Amino acid sequence: MCPLKNVMPRHDRFGWRSYFHDSLPAVPSWFMSSLIESCGAGVFEHFRDCDPRLPVTRPMIKVVSGRPIVNLSLLNEVMRTWGLPIRLRADTVADDKVGQAFGANSGRLIRHLVPIFRFGRAQWFATHDARRATSTLLQTGCRPFESFGAAVAAMQLVYVEKTWRMFNLTGCISLLQSLRRAITPEANGTHLRMLNTFMENDFDSVRAFIRSHPSVQRILEVGEIPQELEFQDLWIVIMDRYGHRAVYEDDLAQPRYAETPKALIAALMTPPRDRLRPRRTLLNRVLFPIEVQTRRLLAEREWFQHRTMVVFTHIRNELLRLADHAVLRGQLPTREALWNLDIDELRRLDQGWQPDEAFWKARAAEIDRLAQQQPSQ
Predict the structure, then answer these.
(1) What is the pLDDT of residue 104?
(2) Helix-helix angle 148-183:343-350, to 10 degrees
(3) DSSP 3-state assignment of 59?
(4) What angle do CA 133, 303, 249 make, to 5 degrees?
């Protein structure tokens, strides 16, 4: 079997919803889109660590219409080359449009046992590696930065590592999904949506308090924070635990809950998700060990996301601090304007570049134009 060619075929299929739909806003910031695109090669390098014969020139991530999208065809070809079923890739990146569904190929599996072993090792030790990576990410990102370039470089390292670790954790979950489907074809993954994260569980306890105290609910409905002592105790705990989280939190341009309490209020005012319990059947009892392991992996993945967001928030704050200095130097009109620059333009600010008014008007017009376009599905 020949290795994949180092060319970009015309049939490459890129997908927005398959990976970024839940983690980024409809139109991510100009900064974050360019940063994610710059991390594509670093993420795919982890695949090449498993199999050096994989291509080096085909992009794993590119920006189209202002949105970073994943090269699904490239990931499909990796699975096919190794003889693995494409469904594994589709489950890992939550892609329902898998195209032609190729199953396992025993001949290719045998010929690619070494890269499969390396890939399998990364997923087998996904939880251990994610925990170990957390301390490394904290050391890399939670420190002061003297320039935009230094902060961007740290963020690239953090994003590549986070993406690879999350990919492996999700890959473990998809393997369990495949096993579940082998036992019962009716298993389509909907049961995973019944499993609330620990953040949602904590939010639900506050929601229950709000529903039982109409006076508190009325104050929250107008966007204010009640001063009732019992609610204040809950609010302090929630803010302390989740103040560094945000809606579409993978985009550094998104304010954290600690910065915009109204966003947290809105999250607490949403109805709790239904807690559907599976019926007690013989089949569900057979699937119970898979369910337990799936819950454990989901908890590990959410905890890794939770800790990684500490690093994201620190780098966000450092970039905003540097932006304040750039505003004083006349390089930025406001501190938030930094999110309308790509990473190369941010590095140019370190060299004294000063965008003029025409630049900002043109960039704002381009962002507005892209917001009207529909992302690739």
Answers:
(1) 78
(2) 160
(3) coil
(4) 95
205 to 132, 231, 234: CA distances (angstroms): 31, 11, 9
- Alpha-carbon torsion angle 168, 169, 170, 173, nearest 10: 120
pLDDT at 277: 59
Q: Which residues fall within 8 angstroms of residue 18, CB to CB, at 6 or more apart? A: 70, 72, 93, 94, 95
Q: For residues 360 and 339, give the distance between their C-alpha atoms in angstroms, rounded to a whole number.
A: 12
46 CB contacts (<8 Å, ≥6 apart)? 122, 164
180 Cβ contact list (under 8 Å, min separation 6): 187, 287, 290
Q: In 3D, which of 175, 24, 194 has the Cα closest to residue 87?
A: 175
Query: What's the rounded Cα separation, in Å, for the pair 245 and 221?
Result: 21
Mean pLDDT for each 10-residue chunk of the chain (377 residues)?
A: 41 55 87 96 94 90 89 87 77 54 79 91 91 94 97 97 92 79 58 59 90 93 92 94 94 95 90 64 71 85 94 98 97 97 97 96 95 70
Q: Which residue has the tokens 């961007």?
A: 152
What local confidence, expressed as pLDDT, does residue 131 receive?
A: 93
- Would you say 254 and 246 are in contact if contact means Cβ atoms under 8 Å apart? yes
Count of C-beta atoms within a 10 Å radius of residue 140: 17
d(Cα 233, Cα 363) in Å, to the nearest integer? 44
CA distances 279 to 140, 181, 185, 288, 360, Å, are 46, 17, 17, 12, 58
Residue 104 near residue 88 (C-beta atoms within 8 A):
no
CA distance 366 to 139: 37
- For 59, residues 6+ apart whose C-beta sits below 8 A from its C-beta are 8, 40, 41, 71, 74
For residue 287, which of 192, 200, 201, 197 has the smallest C-alpha distance?
192
> In angstroms, rounded to a whole number, what is the distance separating the alpha carbons of residues 25 and 254?
9
Its pTM stands at: 0.86
pLDDT of residue 288: 74
Structure tokens at 180: 């579940």
Give yes or no for a contact between 257 and 239, defined as CB atoms under 8 angstroms apart.
Answer: yes
Sign (positive or negative) of CA dihedral 161, 167, 173, 178? negative
